[in-house]
Structures are given as structure tokens and as C-alpha cells.
Amino acid sequence: MFDKILIANRGEIACRVIRTAKRLGIKTVAVYSDADADALHVREADEAVYIGESPSASSYLVIDRIVEAARKTGAQAVHPGYGFLSEKKVFAEALAAAGIAFIGPRPHAIGAMGDKIESKKLARAAGVSTVPGYLGSLTSDDEAVKVAEEIGFPVMLKASAGGGGKGMRIARSAKEVREGLRATMNEAKSSFADDRVFIEKYIEQPRHIEIQVLADQFGNTLYLGERECSIQRRHQKVIEEAPSPFLTPQTRKAMGEQAVALAKAVDYCSAGTVEFIVDKDQNFYFLEMNTRLQVEHPVTELVTGLDLVEWMLRIAAGEKLTLTQDDIKLTGWAIESRLYAEDPSRGFLPSIGRLSKFRPPVGEGVRVDTGVYEGAEISMFYDPMIAKLITYGATRAEATERMSLALDGFEVRGVGHNVEFLNALMHLPRFASGDLTTNLIAEEFPEGYVAPSPKGEALNRLVALAAARHMTSVVRDAGMSGRTAGKLYTPPKEWTVVAGEGHHKVAAKLVDGGVDITDGQGNIRKVRGELGQHLDRFDGFVDGVAMVVQIDRRGTTSRLVQGGCAIQAWVMAPRAAELLSLMPVKAPPDTSKMLLSPMPGLLVSLAAVEGQTIKAGEPLAVVEAMKMENVLRAERDVTIGKILAKPGSSLAVDQVIMEFA
Ligand code: ADP
């Protein structure tokens, strides 16, 4: 085994690798850029080497500096994590040339699987079932339309060099093929410097199910079951689980055996993942092979009991697998949620800033993999993932329940985040029934996500909690003013909780260990637990129901969040609540007659001129943001009034691009 390794990565995955290395008594070297000088992976490693400026092209992607850092520190091997250089054949080659082991597969396997067209050809030859399609690169619209018509609509246009969900488009008609080919080629060129685009059949109601493989350097190859990653947003995974609630043991075995056949065909060693798309009849088709550790590997670790990083280290050090396929047993259920710094209510735009609060949940069956800490900064330079929250249970229902509670308790402040949205996913009846497809998010949240108000008793409990907190703090304040003569104040017992449009009249009574709240119908709800106004989280009981609730104070109101639902509560004297309706409300400006930029970006082109009439669904403008070309379309029939932005100019979020007449 190695004495010292270098981790050519950052964030949670660098910390994840360090954790196993420490357990095995291996010393670790971190690398870091300017933005990461204070990062968690730097703090946790035994040594750290500075490798350059913040943009990854000047640091984490500079092969020479990383090889040099390994040489200088005497690291015998390098773990690449995921992303960055993990799937760059030249990196593995450079390390080999320097006599340093690469903790991953051999260079030729990385190369063979790095290209979607080439890997599909290879998979076909290895007897792996692939998506029907045309494996040449397309250049002309006419050719693309001809191929698409042969395959049959709908089809998918894909960049051969694509990855991370970028460079992919569904086309349901010849017109969409024409429109899509240009855009996909442009995107492929700007993101991957390679404009080859191919076409394959779009599998309807698809599920994404992938097989984890593990192989040593001696050709022993195993499959460690599957992960279902169907819950995606724009082809990027959001929630993953193991096992899949969909596969029969027969399909699992067939997929596992094909994955092993493919791994053997490229002489694979180390951990790798063979991704499949699965249709509603359990037909499965190879998508691609990722020749590295995946973000979602923890769910496999929890159901197999294996440490994948440990095995990657052992295999790279030349050890043989001591397990056989029969030893691989899947026990229980694991679910992973990816916490991102992004704002779901604004079309999931990335959010950057300082984590003024970061308190992950703890509990039975809860694992948190993260690379940040309270006070750390989420910068614009890297992937905006804050943490991965993984829960384990004996059954899927138990793992789901634990996930939901853990999300309720996850305190993140200072940056926008998707914690509530993840919890809303956990509460979908469709999630519980396991009826997943990659379209689930688009279908369930067509307008995006804004936390809805809870209903029924769930609402009543939050109202009671808001009142109880208010009462507690008023009584505490009264106690203080009581010390000053002439400032004696007896808090009222009656309050009105204004939550949205609803006015809830309650009476509050302080009792031992909490507050009793009586509603207008005379129902008493016992709120028990710490109720201090300084707490951002309530962890206690309302009416005997265990509740973990996030509480965000905003001026005189509080936002209470639980189970993916939220209320904005304002507790006041009943008379004040009555007068509230007389208060003027500031009306937001009417933006329905304008086209606003939904994100900061670059205005690539305009598809309309002043005075032109545009039909609903037709393009108005193209905005490039985060390497994606976004076509902004008319939501209804409109006539263009004034155009206020020029192509080539940069746009702020909500900047007016044009007005409608
Ligand atoms: P990337 O390398 O960018 O991750 P993949 O080929 O792995 O691209 O595809 C990512 C996702 O896109 C899949 O998980 C699936 O949701 C969707 N997808 C890809 N190909 C197809 C297809 N032929 N039919 C339906 N969905 C597809």
C-alpha cells in the first residue's frame, strides 16, 4: 500500500478521499488554488501545495503543476476525484511517465470511453445493448433530418465530446432537428472544443440506471449493483438511490453482466460506472461509461458495505480483489440528495456567497459528505455543490423518512440553496411509489419551485409554533423591562398569526417546557422544545409530533420551513391584524409586457425586430449563460415594441431585453 497520495481535486470529493486514506494510515497531499487557500480539503490534508489562480484552467486543470506537486512531496499515487482531470487520458499518461501511480483505470480505457461515438461502437462490439442511432458525426441539416427520419422521432442530438448534461437536445420534428443541430454544434464547440454531433433515438419515459463496476489489474471484474439516478434537472442528477425501485433481479443481473463485459473489453481496472437508459418495459441501453468515481458512489457503499475509495487505492497498489460476485449482497436502501448553492425560485440560478451558517444534520443512518464549513465561501469558480446528504434505512420508506427529517434539520444560511426543493421531492407521491423518469422534475414542477404553504394540521402546527416562539420572546422581553420602574408590561394572551392570506386567532399560555396554543375552535396544541428567538431551528414536538423546522427571521416576520413547505408568519395583536387590511401594499411592477433576462448572461442574438408580431412558442432572443444557449420564447402572441438590449451585450438578471406593444 502507498505511504502518501496526492488528491488532484477539491471540495467534498477531496475530503472524501482523505477520509479513507487517513483510516488506512496513508498520508495525504492536497492541492489548492487562490480561492481555496482556506478550503476544508486543505485543512484536512497532511500537506498542501499551491497550484495556481482560481480559474480551474489555471490550477486544477494544469497537469504539469499537479505532477510537479506530487513529485515534490513524494506522493506515490494520485487520486483524481471526479471532474477536472479525472477522465483525461493525457493526465494518466503524464503520471505514468513520472513514475506515479494513477488511482483509476489505465489510460487506454479512459481514452476509449471518453468519446460518446467511439464508446458506443465499442459497446456494440462487446455485445452491450445500445440506443438505436447513427454513429457518424453530422454536419448538414438535411443529413441530420434524413437520419432522424430513419430512426423515427423523437430523437436526441448529442455532442460526442459532451458531458455533465451539456450538449444534448431532444428533437420531435424535422424543424426541431434543424433548429437543434446548429445550437448543439455551437454549444459543443464552445464547451468541449469539438463540434461533432450524432443522433440517437430518444427513449420515452426514460429512467437512468447505472451499474457500478470494480475491477483489479488482473482482470477480476465485479458489478456492485445499480444506482437509479432518474431524478434529474436538465439531464443532471439531483437525487440518486440504490437499489433501483424498478429493476427485477433478472434485469439487474443482465445489466450487471453487460457492464462487466464492457469493462473487460477495455481491460478496465479500478472503480467505474456503466450508465444505461431504461425504458418502461425494462429494456436497457448503454449510454456511456464513466471511468472514475461518481458523485453518487456513497449510495452503493451503504448498500454493499464496501468502501470504494479503499478499493481504488488497493487496486492501484496492485492488490487483487478478494471478493467474488457471490459476495456482493445488497442490503437495505440508500438515497443521496445533492445540495446545491442555487435558487430554485429563480430558475435554479447559481448562488454564491459566504455560508453564514452551515450545520449538517446528524442521526442514525445519516451521512454527510461535504467540502465546506460554516464561514466558508461558495465561489463562482467551481461547481456550486455544498454537500451530499445520504441516508440509509432498512427499507426505501425508512431511507426516505430519514432523508426528509435530515433535510428539515440541515441549516444553511448565507447562500441560496435547494434544501426545501429536495424535501419537496421526498414528499411527492410519485417518489414514494417509485414511479420515476428523468422528466419527473419538469412534469411535477413545470413552473419551477416555490415552497407551497402546508395544509391542514401541518399548517396548524406551524402556526402554533410561530405563536409559541413569539409568546416566549415577548415574555422574556417583559421580564427584562420589569426591572425598570415604570416600564412594566404584561404580555397579552391573545394573538393573531397572519400567515399568507390566513388570519389564525390563538391564545398562548406559557407552561413548563413550552407553550400551549389554543386555536379559535378550542383545540389545544402543546408546543414543546427550545423556543428561543435566537434559534434558527426548532427541534421538538408540536402536539406530540416530532418536528424539525427551519426558522428564518425576516424583520418582524418569520419564515418557517418543514417538509418542503413554508409559511411566512407574522404574529401580532388581534387589533393590529384587523388594521392590517388597511395598510397599503406596494404592487410589484407589471413585467408581463416585457421580456426579461432570466439569468445573468450574454445576449447572443435577437430573433425579432420592433413592430414584428411573434406567435406563442416562437423564439424572441438567445441568451448564453453558463455555457448554455438559452432560447427565450414568447409565452403568448406578442407584438414587439421597443428593443432595449443589443446583441453582444451582457445582461443582468431581470434586465429588460424588449418591451411588447
Ligand atoms: P452526460 O455525459 O452529459 O452526462 P449522458 O449520455 O450520460 O450525458 O446522458 C445524460 C442524461 O440525458 C441521461 O441520464 C438521460 O436522462 C438523458 N438521455 C441521454 N440520452 C438519452 C436518450 N437517448 N433518450 C432519453 N434520454 C437520454
UniProtKB/TrEMBL annotation:
The keyword Lipid metabolism applies. It catalyses: propanoyl-CoA + hydrogencarbonate + ATP = (S)-methylmalonyl-CoA + ADP + phosphate + H(+). Pathway: Metabolic intermediate metabolism; propanoyl-CoA degradation; succinyl-CoA from propanoyl-CoA: step 1/3. This is propionyl-CoA carboxylase. SMART domains: Biotin_carb_C. Residues 153-167, 286-293 form the Carbamoyl phosphate synthase ATP-binding domain. It comes from Lacibacterium aquatile. InterPro entries: BC-like_N (IPR005481), Biotin_BS (IPR001882), Biotin_carboxylase_complex (IPR050856), Biotin_COase_C (IPR005482), Biotin_lipoyl (IPR000089), CPAse_ATP-bd (IPR005479), PCC_BT (IPR041265), PreATP-grasp_dom_sf (IPR016185). Gene3D superfamilies: 2.40.50.100, 3.30.700.30, ATP-grasp fold, B domain (3.30.470.20). It comes from the Bacteria. One of its GO terms (molecular function) is acetyl-CoA carboxylase activity. The keyword Manganese applies. Its EC number is 6.4.1.3. CDD domains: biotinyl_domain. Keywords: Biotin, Ligase, Lipid degradation, Lipid metabolism, Magnesium, Manganese, Metal-binding. Coiled coil: none annotated. Pfam families: Biotin_carb_C, Biotin_carb_N, Biotin_lipoyl, CPSase_L_D2, PCC_BT. Its cofactor is biotin.
